[in-house]
Amino acid sequence: MTDHLLSLMTFFPLVGMLIVLFLPREADRLIKTVTLIVTIIVFLISLPLAFDDVFINSSAMQYTEFANWISIGQYFQMNYYVGIDGISLWLVLLTTFIMPIAILSTWHAVDKNTKGFMALALLLETGMLGAFISLDLFLFYVFWELMLVPMYFMIGIWGGKNRIYAAVKFFIFTAVGSLLMLVAIIYVYYYALQAGVPFENGFSIAHFYQLDIPAHLQTWLFVAFAFSFAIKVPMFPVHTWLPDAHTEAPTAGSVILAAILLKMGTYGYVRFAIPLFPVATMKFTPFLALLAVIGIIYGALVAMMQDDVKKLVAYSSVSHLGFVMLGIFAMNLQGLSGGMLQMINHGISTGALFLIVGFIYERRHTRLIVDFGGLSKVMPVFATIFMIVTFSSVGLPGTNGFVGEFLILVGAFESDLRIFTVFATIGVILAAVYMLWMFQRVMMGKVTNPKNAELKDLSAREVVIMLPLVLFIFWIGFYPNVFFEKMNPSLENLINQVKDKQHIAMMAEEMKPTVTQISVNDLR
Amino acid sequence: MISVYHYMTVSAILFAMGTYGVLTRRNAIVIFMCIELMLNSVNLTFIALSNHLQSMDGQIFVFFVMTVAAAEAAVGLALMIAFYRNRESIDVDNINLMKL
Amino acid sequence: MYDKLWLIPFFPLLGCIINGLLGKRFIKNEKVIGAIATGAIFLSFLVSCKYLIQLLGDSVKSHEVVVASWMSVGILQVDWGFLLDPLSALMLMVVCGVGSLIHLYSIGYMHGEEGFYRFFCYMNLFAFSMLMLVLGNNALVMFVGWEGVGLCSYLLIGYYFEKQSAGDAAKKAFVMNRVGDFGFLLGLFIIFWTLGSKHDVWTVNFMEISENAHLLSGDMMLGLGVTTVATLCFFLGATGKSAQLPLYTWLPDAMEGPTPVSALIHAATMVTAGVYMIGRMNVLFAMSPTTMAVVALVGALTAIFAASIGFAQNDIKRVLAYSTVSQLGFMFIAMGVGAFTAGIFHLMTHAFFKACLFLGSGSVIHAMHHALHHAHLNDDPQDMRNMGGLRKKMPVTWATFGISCLAISGLPFFSGFFSKDEILWWAFASTRGSKLVWAIAVIAAFMTAFYMFRALYMTFHGEQRTNAKAKDHVHESPWVITLPLVVLAFLATVGGLIGIPHVLGNMLGHIPNKLEHFLAPVFEHSQRLYEIEAHGTAATEVSLMVMSVLIALAGIGVATVMYMKNPELPGKFTRKFSQLHRWVYNKWFVDEAYDVLFVNSTKKLGTFCWKGFDVKVIDGIVNGTAKVVGALSAVLRHTQTGLFQNYALTMVFGTVVMVAIFILN
Hints:
The complex is a heterotrimer of chains A (524), B (100) and C (665). Chain A is mainly alpha-helical and 524 residues long. Helix content of chain A is 74%, strand content 4%. Chain A has one domain (2-523). Chain A has a two-stranded antiparallel sheet with strand order 1-2. Chain A is globular. Chain A starts with a helix and ends in a 13-residue tail after the last helix. In chain A, 60% of the residues are buried. Chain B is an all-alpha fold and 100 residues long. The longest helix of chain B has 31 residues, at 57-87. In chain B, 13% of the residues are buried. The mean pLDDT of chain B is 88. Chain C has helices at residues 7-27, 30-56, 86-109, 116-135, 139-157, 164-199, 206-212, 226-241, 250-253, 259-268, 273-280, 282-287, 289-310, 316-336, 340-374, 395-409, 415-429, 435-460, 468-471, 479-494, 502-507, 514-529, 538-565, 569-576, 578-585, 590-636, 644-664, and strands spanning 63-73, 76-84, 220-221, 224-225. Helices cover 73% and strands 4% of the residues of chain C. With 665 residues, chain C is mainly alpha-helical. The longest helix of chain C is centred in the last third of the chain and has 47 residues, at 590-636. The chains are: A mainly alpha (524), B mainly alpha (100), C mainly alpha (665). Chains in contact: A-C, B-C.
């Protein structure tokens, strides 16, 4: 069974989708229940991964599966090659964990063409899981594009007023990036073939890691990859699809988008862009760190001025993911594990925030801050949960946000990005400003609008949705070692591998008259 | 003696008639019939040349064409019926959904 | 031996969870809720007492207890660890002791409030955070407490969340504290990184930092010593938490919270966290004379600046709030001139008398509120202009308030006398002291005596100015309120006796300075290593002491003349110096300046980024590309008629042309 655990997990939603497609269109509740059960089963399938101690001891890929997939004569060889290590482990679990929650949140929110929605959601899950476990660059690309389509329809069909614009913008932004990446993937493939990588290995990244691609080529390939991932992250200045997509998407769509899809970009850097092109990474690190820090502060400033709660949360994502990027490019263990943890944190906190926005939207059919005020009085349970999530997003110690942010900042401070860290830390202040201001305007004060006076507090279903998220907020806040111990071996391995190559490249550079001195942090 | 040229001429005439019909008629059913006419003129050409060249290839193609033509007629008529249900007309001038 | 140390923060946390989860639906009863919360902190108090006694009899003076690993990421190892040494033991006594009293007081004060359970849940959470701050054996656990108390401060200031001003004040407090936290984090990063990368000591543990701090002496950063930069960053953190210039403005606004909160958080414990933090890192601070000078100067300026604002406030709690800012300034003077013991001493005595003052004011407000409410009046129950002559109505409150006023003014043998004089003496005579700081501090002491007695007279003496309808409904508060007052007043009187200065001790017959001896293991090392000491003759010290007593008496005298003997004098004064009064009354317009400088400009920048850059530039480019493509296709679409026969014709035409070309070739 464990031999094919990953495949089972990845393609089970697809089976679920087929079941859903054969259910009668009108059986709304049945369709939702079946989808929920399918996602829960997927979660249960993935759960043993969390308890597998092999990740503590080994940085290698586990649960690998290999099969020939497409062979075109002697031109192309694509394999179904999947596996999981400490880097993708938690993202996979995050995906399987968030999906049931997202489905449960649609209970009353989605009432038109439920069948379509659920089928797409399940297809999306397959796409996301597939992308996280792919060890073949081409396979990754297939899953990467597979995610795009269901999300496009989710926004375009079940979205808000301006949904078509948002959906098309989302699609085009992402597609532009991925096409560039496709070109780069194919280039790397042919380069690898020429460099003597055996044909039957196809697009296996493990072999691509070993290549010594000349610096000038790396630059171009890195740009193509980095651009594609930057759009997905999204980094400043290619972030503008995100607020639109988030605002228009239905709650479940926003949750999945924020919690998992955005991680695809940051994961892409860690898994592909950086280890494939370490020398170019070195060259672009200051630039990308700069963009990350601009994103942190810029996202926070823009979030502060929003009048729509959902847009505020969307811009806060730009800020939070800026932190993740900064951590990744610190290229040391603290920064990277902080970045990885912050991906999970962001999935939990921002996912929770979108759910919260969804709750009040379902009740009042508005997301404008001015329409609310004084909700604490009317909805005390909601207020408590909202408060916890808010402070988790602000990064209060004791919640998950702090651990991630702190490690990122410490990591960045240890690296050569010291000056960026100072500015990034300002983002911590701004996070408090925009979140608390919003919280005050929505939850505090007197109930001015009579419509708000009769709002119902959270139902049992809604509390059940939020409870696991709140649990994780505190768990990661107080005892994150569970995550670190499985993450760190793989990350350490990655850092060593990247640093070694950068070191060699620098030694070669030093032979030349122009010398740029970049210190290499020793890692222990 | 009827030579291959005669067959070709007949088929060219049939083809031209079909084309003319497709281009000018407004009734979709008639247009369909004209398309059938064109397909059959091609079939005639195939068979004539097959005989002329003493090769079976042409006749095989004819079977393909006939199959496709049957399928096409079925799909086309289904489309027409669906369309007629919506618009109560099968005048092709009314079928301009592609125009924004 | 000390391995149950974690119980101290655990009890309040448990109380918080019980009240938070069950308080509203299941317990409901105010008495039970109050008992759980007060009992929780009292249990912590008992455990603290036990460990204090144990520590007193122990020859080893610092004990670390690690409960679990928190973050373990390569070189960064952070534990959930606690540290018990004389400094934290003393703070434990202050926090748990004063905390217990204030919890008890709150049962009476908050009686009948809608969110009773919520209040006590937050109060316990605060106690938990504060104890984490105090007990943390590394900077990160301290930071958990550090931000945790900020959170509780936010929650409790915003307790009356339906009031706009309460929400604003809560947010302001949290954000300003975050500015400070920014400094704290940066300081921590600098220490962590420099110690690690240059000296191979990767640690955030206080003891390890202290032991290895000397390694940093030669390291430079930004043209200054590393320790200077780091400690300045830490000090920024302290100014945020302890409401010093320039980050003090949140504290007066924080008076929006219920009065017990002001007493516990914004007088006795949380705001002293900055002082405690400097005490905890005294080795680092001692290494940098520059930072210490800055600390002392900022403290002195804050002391006098806040005192000046205290002159003209009419809200009794605001007077006390500015007084707190000012007294915190004194503590920072102490830390800045190297009088660490005196600073902590003043922290402790201040906790006694300021908590007593706040609780006393709470008692008055409570009584006023009931009286005004009874008479259906909307007068402000906190405005001292509505009070006066309450001495007869509320004798216990008056007596305790008066004693605390004497203590804060520094009259001999009250607790404030010993601690304040110790600070003044060090400011004058320390190797890190300066006459300027001393002079400012003396003036601030004079002002303190003046405005505290002004408040005392306006509230309790003279004519009762309360609206006639409400006048007779003012009564003394119940025992749960007065008991803590009496205990605190007692402590404010005798609490100073544990730290009698050597000069006086020698004069009175060899009474040792017990506190100094107790805290010596924490501070002596750095004071000796970096040659921080106060030197001067006993005669100088005694004459300075006499002088400061005279100055305090002068302040009291002026207040007596102005507010007791000639009640029309203040009015004349304000008319004569109306401009000055306007500035003082409006708190030197600092809030307004901050609004213009920081708040509005940030908002403008945010709006520009959004509407100017995001929408116009970025989306402009994106949508512009789409528009260009759209315009092109608008031209080409004319070829698309939508009639298939047109397409068929084009096709036929194309085929004919192609065939023609083929044939002609």
